[in-house]
């Protein structure tokens, strides 16, 4: 019995998403090191193990700590936060921990303060310009490598990039263009350093690129995360079909305004987050309502979408032909715009078999 | 020792904010029923008790349940969610619970299913158009009142409105214009029903109106919430000075990009939420960096602001004259745009006396 905003997971769709990405990685002989920041759940992590995945990516040391009870090889894909050195040393003593580095100061600190060995990837800015070393800055890369080589606690693993600028693409061609540039940048680094570091790993792979591309030449490892669920934002980018989205929020109807064709649901910014799609045909959209079925949900209902969110309220725009179908106490199923943020706010996933899947 | 994004509270500023609003309510002979969705903390709630507050507002039954251990009179200012009838009955049996209603179906359900008595306010749409009964729809108001009168479990408390459209104002004059219209709408309802219900309460009072207005004619109760902390969005509206903002996030510096005058901090959308200020002189702003002092913080540093947020990353734009002052491992203090959403994401408040104040 649903009584408040509840995040549902369609296990079949979710496992199909996992299987599809695992197959793709296998086809292209890539190591799949999925990013677990999207689901943050030990239980969902186990579904990946069933497909042979044994290495993961996370975005914080807190997440690495949570997953370390069941995973022995974890990359924290966030610039190393030296203030958390105690957690770093604790984790490095228990699992194969990889950090990402891009600054001399960070490596100098690690060299002095590590008590266990760990791996590092040098973070390369492959065009997103959020963070990372410019790939043409070989002087800095050489400096970082000399610091790494001089430490008996730090092992060089390779170069890691994140093409987050694919999230601004709206066509497969756009995604492939970004992806091709990532491959070229990484190929130059592999050429430059492959001989000196024979086992070096080239790690790339955001969800849009990994969903769309079929050429991964020179890549050793991919780290997509969002694909486990997908969402409306990924659909807009072109990563997935609506039918592949594996989570939806059930939201109780608390008020109906027939005069302006709106329904108020219990389900706001503290449940969905306020990530939005801009420039939709309806304007700004914070979620879309889907048809309900007994054990899941179906297509998007045309013209039925979340037009605004406040802390607890969601305002749903409803077609005139449909407004009479709903009554207070019903629940609407809503596809979120950005599932990583939504899942972070909700503390569990509910299945249609009345299971509750917990997370960090 | 700060190691990760940490939400700090300046207790002095916070208590001054509480005192100022309590004084204003007293001056205007208003009942202050503060909205506790902004802080969601029993401990901070106790600071209000010190100023004589004994009634509160919350935005969910879960919050009402949390505060019911210390508060005996709680209004849930969200359209009644009938699916939570068990919680409603539990609370109504323990405390003076007030719900808000605006639909016949909701009242019909309550009449049939309540096991204890409670109060209801009729929610009136005073111009925000999020939800509520249109104030000119006396037929519906009369219908709701007849349902209320027919129930021995439901007591009519009065009319409640929320002028959320003040959040779109950018001047005091704009806020006062909205507030004046609220007063006029509510005066008409008090005139129409005051004789039939002599004790009826007129309840209004968003933070901008309560911060700026000096005329509350006809109003019995105000329910501002955000003023306990204030934030950049309220400052932009004109509710508060920057010096009155009582919370700031400490964010570790993890990377520095001197070439593009940017610092990457640990502090992203999962800490701040992604509420933003649009149309600032710098463009879109997700937070502003303030000067640090030993036991607090000072003014905004001109030109130093959060230009973008992803899940864990915050990108800070830094003036060229200042970039050399910072190093990896420092912490920046950042004022949030919308503290209600930020506080909801962070699970505690830290004081400069090393206290940790918990919340729901």
Q: Nutshell version of this structure?
A:
Chains A, B: Belongs to the DSD1 family. The first copy, chain A, is built from eleven helices and 19 strands.
- Total domain units of chain A: 2
Structure summary, number of beta strands of chain A: 19
What portion of residues of chain A belong to β-strands?
25-35%
Low-confidence stretches of chain A: none
The ordered H/E elements of chain A are EHEHEHEHEHEHEHEHEHEEHEEEEEEHEE
* Helix content class of chain A: 25-40%
Which pair of protein chains has the largest interface, and what are the residue counts? A-B, 55 and 55 residues
The oligomeric status of these chains comes to homodimer
Query: How much is the radius of gyration of chain A in Å?
Result: 22 Å
Tally of separate helices of chain A: 11
Structure description:
Chains A, B: This is Alanine racemase. Chains A, B: GO terms for molecular function: alanine racemase activity; D-serine ammonia-lyase activity. Chains A, B: It comes from Rapidithrix thailandica. Chains A, B: It holds the Pfam family Ala_racemase_N. Chains A, B: Keywords: Isomerase, Lyase. 2 copies of one chain form a homodimer. With 360 residues, the first copy, chain A, is of the alpha/beta class. Chain A has 2 domains: 218 residues, TIM Barrel; 117 residues, Beta Barrel (Lyase, Ornithine Decarboxylase, Chain A, domain 1). Chain A contains 11 helices and 19 strands. In chain A, the strands form 4 sheets. Chain A has an 8-stranded parallel sheet with strand order 2-9-8-7-6-5-4-3, with helices on one face. Chain A has a 6-stranded antiparallel barrel with strand order 10-11-16-15-14-17. Chain A has a two-stranded antiparallel ribbon with strand order 12-13. In chain A, helix 5 packs parallel to helix 6. Chain A is elongated and about 70 Å long. Chain A starts with 5 loop residues before the first strand and ends with a strand. The relative contact order of chain A is 0.14. Chains A and B meet through helix 5, strand 10 and helix 11 of A and helix 5, strand 10 and helix 11 of B.
């Amino acid at each position: 019995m649903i009584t408040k905003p509840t995040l549902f997971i369609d296990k079949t769709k979710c496992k199909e998403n996992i299987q599809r990405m695992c197959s793709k990685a296998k086809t292209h002989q890539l190591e799949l090191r999925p990013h677990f920041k999207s689901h943050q759940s030990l239980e969902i992590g186990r579904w990946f193990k069933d497909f042979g995945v044994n290495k993961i990516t996370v975005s914080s040391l807190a997440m690495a700590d949570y997953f370390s009870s069941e995973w022995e090889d974890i990359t924290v894909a966030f610039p190393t936060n030296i203030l958390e050195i105690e957690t770093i040393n604790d984790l490095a003593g228990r699992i194969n921990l990889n950090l990402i580095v891009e600054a001399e100061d960070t490596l100098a600190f690690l060299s002095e303060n590590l008590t266990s060995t760990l791996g590092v990837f040098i973070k390369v800015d492959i065009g997103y310009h959020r963070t990372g070393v410019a790939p043409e800055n070989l002087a800095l890369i050489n400096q970082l490598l000399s610091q790494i080589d001089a430490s008996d606690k730090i092992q060089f693993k390779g170069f890691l990039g994140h093409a987050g600028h694919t999230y601004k693409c709206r066509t497969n061609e756009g995604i492939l263009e970004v992806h091709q540039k990532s491959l070229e940048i990484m190929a130059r680094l592999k050429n430059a350093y492959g001989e000196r570091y024979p086992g070096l790993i080239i790690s790339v792979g955001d969800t849009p690129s990994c969903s769309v591309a079929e050429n991964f030449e020179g890549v050793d490892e991919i780290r997509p995360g969002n694909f486990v669920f997908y969402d409306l934002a990924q659909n807009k980018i072109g990563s997935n079909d609506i039918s592949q989205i594996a989570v939806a929020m059930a939201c109780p109807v608390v008020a109906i305004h027939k005069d302006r064709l709106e329904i108020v649901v219990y389900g706001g910014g503290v449940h969905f987050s306020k990530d939005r799609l801009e420039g939709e045909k309806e304007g700004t959209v914070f979620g879309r309502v889907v048809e309900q079925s007994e054990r899941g949900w179906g297509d998007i209902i045309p013209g039925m979408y979340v037009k605004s969110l406040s802390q607890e309220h969601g305002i749903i725009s409803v077609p005139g032909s449909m407004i009479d179908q709903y009554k207070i106490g019903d629940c609407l199923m809503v596809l979120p715009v950005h599932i990583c943020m939504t899942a972070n706010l909700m503390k569990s996933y509910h299945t249609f078999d009345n299971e509750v899947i917990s997370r960090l």
